Each structure stands twice: as C-alpha cells, then as structure tokens.
Amino acid sequence: MSGETEKEVSGWTTDTLKEHLSAVIASNDRRYTERFDAQESASKYAQEKANEFRGSLDDVGKRQMPRVEAEQLIRSTTDRWSAQLGSVNEKVDALQARMDRNDGRSGGINAGWLILVAAVGLVATVIGIVVALRR
C-alpha cells in the first residue's frame, strides 16, 4: 500500500504533493503580487489626489484676503459712508428749513390775499347798503 492509510490508493506521492504545493505557492505569489501592485497603484493615485487637494487649498489661501486687511477696508468704507451720510443729512436739514420758510411766506401771502378779498367784499357790501338806503 505504499504508506496509504485508506483502503483505496489516492495517488498522492511526495512528488505530486510537491508539485501541488508549488502550484499553490505560485498561484498565491501571483495573487499577492497583483494585490500589491493594485494597492501600490491606489496609493499613488490617493497621493496624487492629496497633492492636488493641497495645491487647491494653497491657491484658495493665496487668493483670500487677510482678516486685518478686510477689517481695515470695512472700517474705511464705513467711515466714508458715515461722512457722506452726515453731509447728506446737513443738506436735507437745510432744504427742510428752506421749505419751512417758503411755507410760512406763502401762508402769509395767502392770508394777506384772504384779508384783502374780505376787506374788498366788506367795502363792497357797505357801499351796496349805503346805495340801497339812499334810494
């Protein structure tokens, strides 16, 4: 039986076992090599993308305005607008005062015309009464 423990002879010998194990090892070596190459490729791709991302972040950082500079710009713009607003308010106040004076003047003129018309009406009424009484 040549060292077999089963009733039937299986056909395995040390030479066939060596060939089988060599084939399994070679197959595993190919799989591991393929896996390693795939992982290496993925690692290179990830590294390239990370470098691309770092580059874009660097570009964004270079294009952004520093906080101190932005605050100074906002402050100067606010100061300019405040000064212009003060000037506009002064002009509006001056125009309002002028309109108030004009309203007072036109109101006085209108009141003068009213008094004049009333006086003429009164004189006409008195004359009419006097003429009517003399007849």
- Average per-residue pLDDT, rounded, comes to 86
Overall 3D geometry? rod-shaped
Q: Main sheet, how many strands, which sense, barrel?
A: none
Structural class: mainly alpha
Give the H and E element order. Answer: HH
Helix content: over 70%
Using only CA atoms, what is the Rg? 55 Å
| E-strand count | 0
Unreliable sequence segments: none
% residues in beta strands:
under 5%
Q: Separation of termini?
A: 176 Å
- Treating each run of at least 4 consecutive H or I residues as one helix, how many helices? 2
Summarize the structure.
By secondary structure, this protein is mostly helical. The chain has helices at residues 14-63, 67-134.
Task: Please describe the structure with a list of short key phrases separated by commas or semicolons.
135 residues; mainly alpha; 2 helices
Explain this structure to me?
The structure is a single chain. 87% of the residues lie in helices and 0% in strands. It has 135 residues and is mostly helical. The protein has a domain at 14-103. The longest helix is centred in the last third of the chain and has 68 residues, at 67-134. It is rod-shaped and about 170 Å long. The protein starts with 13 loop residues before the first helix and ends with a helix. The mean pLDDT is 86.
Write the layout of secondary structure elements.
Layout: H1 14-63, H2 67-134
